[in-house]
Amino acid sequence: MLDYKLLEALGAVVDQAGFERGAQALGLTQSAVSQRIKLLESRLGQPVLVRAPRIAPTELGRRLLNHIQQVRLLEHDLLDYVPALGEREHRLRIALNADSLDTWWCEAVADFDTGQPLLFDLVVEDQETALTRMRDGEVAACLCATPRSVQGARARPLGGMRYLPVATPGFLERHFPGGITPDALTEAPGVVFGSDDRLHQRYIAHHGVTAPFPHHLCPSSEGFHRMIRAGLGYGLVPELQCHDALERGELSLLEHDTKIVVPLYWHYWRQGGQVLEALSEHLTRVARHWLTDLSESERHEPVPPT
């Protein structure tokens, strides 16, 4: 049988990205946590962590983290019947993209009420890579751009986020005096969220540009928007975030007939308990107020969970 104190130590080390911080989260010494991990590996006969170049779970470690994540969620469902199990406070760890967090997410969950305390532990991750957090057992749910779920999880389509190519009027006059041309797109500085952000490449590829282009890197949704408003570059901004600036004339569209829609799917553990299931139902119902319906070309048929 699994010793859940040992699994708790594994979860803390991965969640906190280190033995020292993991020990602090558990209120234990670093030595005690290290001994628990060693004992777990000894009992299982194989490693559960890769120590270098950074702390990461092995394949077995990921399976164990997925297991303990779901056990925690299910245990919370028992509190109404067995109060002695622990605190009623419930914490959900969720990975989501910065643009969703800065636009619609908070309003969407503001009126979600389970009748008991619920806290969110949010991990900001690009929509293209958030699913790796679930695969590694680090989160109970995530928002990502793919319908393919990991083993033991479900995926629900929520809708799409529309992104518009925008810049300040002055930037357009300086860098695109002849309109949107391949040459201008390879010379004008863009603003890109991070190395995993492929939106900009998708946009310029639409115009036949595949060559490298000058760009700023800004891993902050608000900072990204501010750099564009300051005239430092052009970029793809959620329509929800730039609508007012376009209305006031602070920003202008590079072109009116091009929009990029990023599909968003909500992934969550099938055995994640009543609160996670209720949150999933809630998001599926209310997300349409902020997200656009996906066309058949934008919405791939979801792959059934394995």
Low-confidence stretches: 300-306
**How much of the sequence is in beta strands?**
15-25%
CATH 2nd-level architecture of one domain = 3-Layer(aba) Sandwich
Q: Compute the average pLDDT.
A: 86
**Shape, principal axes of CA atoms:** elongated
The number of strands is: 11
Order of helices and strands: HHHEEHEHHEHEEHHEHEHEHEEH
Report helical residue fraction.
Answer: 40-55%
> N- to C-terminal separation?
25 Å
Largest sheet: 7 strands, mixed
CATH class of one domain: Alpha Beta
User: According to CATH, what is the topology of one domain?
Assistant: D-Maltodextrin-Binding Protein, domain 2
- The secondary structure category is alpha/beta
Radius of gyration: 22 Å
Number of helices: 13
